[in-house]
Task: inverse folding
């Protein structure tokens, strides 16, 4: 039986704009508030430019006792990053942490309820 | 009384990957299916790289009879594009089409229910 912790790692691209990276950190905080008891660990990492990078983010989760990791790509399109770069990093992490189970979630752009969420953004009247 | 049509214009960054731009077109189709009777016109445009560009997208809506436009930035972060580039294009469009009301919605990353949507993506068990 697996008695380790469950971790959710939100993976964003990373920006040269510090405030854009700060938005990801704020979203991680909101994820913690919204997740209830489902994940003992929720943190984020960046593919490029910003830190922590993805290997570091996975390492942090494992060091905190995670044995089941869900990696959630905060990307709108299934481009090269989502299709190739993130999976390659996860393969390396699986070799490094064979006792952990690392699952790659679908990217944000694939979520079926995205249209409803977008329509909520357009709820106001034109100014 | 305003008897013109209501239009929703989804604005994405635009990618060099045709399949990423095709994802935006598919999302526009899903928006049409999800919106019911709320918008008579739903289409998309790109800020850079891909076509149609934003002035063209607005022009298409106006040519189809839109007098109320909601412009919805399909962006995760409030970077330069969301803060400066898209609003500047909308100001130009307001001068060009003074009879139309053009409203800039919040960008996707600001939607309050985003954490719940992300948690749904992590609903599966690790493989």
Result:
């Amino acid at each position: 039986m697996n008695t380790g912790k469950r971790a959710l790692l939100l993976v964003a691209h990373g920006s040269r704009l510090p405030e854009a990276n700060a938005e990801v950190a704020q979203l991680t905080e909101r994820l913690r508030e919204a997740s209830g008891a489902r994940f003992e660990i929720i943190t984020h990492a960046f593919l490029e430019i910003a830190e922590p990078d993805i290997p570091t983010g996975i390492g942090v989760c494992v060091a905190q006792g995670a044995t089941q990791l869900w990696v959630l790509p905060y990307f709108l399109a299934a481009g090269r990053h989502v299709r190739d770069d993130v999976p390659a990093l996860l393969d390396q992490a699986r070799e490094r942490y064979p006792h952990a189970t690392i699952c790659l979630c679908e990217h944000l752009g694939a979520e079926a309820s995205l249209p409803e969420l977008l329509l909520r953004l357009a709820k106001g009247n034109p100014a």
User: Anything to note?
Assistant: Residues 7 and 41 of chain B are 4 Å apart (CA to CA).
